[in-house]
Each structure stands twice: as structure tokens, then as C-alpha cells.
Amino acid sequence: MIPARRTTTPALRPHFDRSRLPDPETYYTAELGALHGRGTWRDALCCFHPDTRPSLRVNAQTGSYRCMACGASGGDVLAFQRQRYGLAFPDAAKALGAWIGGRHV
Ligand SMILES: [Zn+2]
Mind giving me the DSSP string for 56-93? Predict the structure, then answer.
């Protein structure tokens, strides 16, 4: 159970707003450095294993990702943020600016 929390502004329940997730191409470029290739799927150095050749494939439109070497994968930039930094869903959403309401940090 989530403990009840006192708040002075109960008007806006904290919630996730997917439309505020960052653009996948911008996000992955910031997280991984250069993306290689020109199509929807780009290649980048994988951050989940020691990588010397770009093994991580990222979808510049949907944000899904999959590493051909270590098997790390997920469906969007939020999943990537959670996996890379070991974050719970709300914390990853907050880190990406996609969490509305509650206490902003
Ligand atoms: Zn990998």
C-alpha cells in the first residue's frame, strides 16, 4: 500500500503524461552520444555492457531499444531510463519531465 500523503493542493493528482516524454532521437543522443545510421533504427554504443562497436539499436520514433550483444531491451525512453538508472516508474517519469503534479524537484 502507498501511504497516504498530506497535501495542501490536492487539485492535481500526480500522474504520468506520456506526451511529455522527450523526443527519442534527442534523448538517446544525449544519453549515448552519436547515433549511427539514417533510418528509423539507429545504432549506438550500448551502455549496458562494455561495448566497442555499436551494438544497441534504438528506434528514433518510438524510443524502443534492443542490444544485439547483451540483450538489454525495452519499449520506450522511459523503460531505458528505468533500466539504465535503476529507477522506479514515477522516478524515471520525473527525471524525464513526464510526471505531472505532486512535489516538483
Ligand atoms: Zn548491450
Answer: EEEETTT--EEETTT--EESSHHHHHHHHHT--HHHHH
**pLDDT tens, position by position, 40-93:** 999 999 999 999 999 999 999 999 999 999 999 999 999 999 999 999 999 999
- Give the SS3 label for residue 31: helix
- Is 36 contained in some domain? yes
Residue 62 lies in a domain: yes
CA 69 / ligand 1 centre spacing (Å):
5
- Ligand 1 centre to CA of 31 (Å) is 14
CA distances from 34 to 10, 31, 41 (A): 43, 9, 13
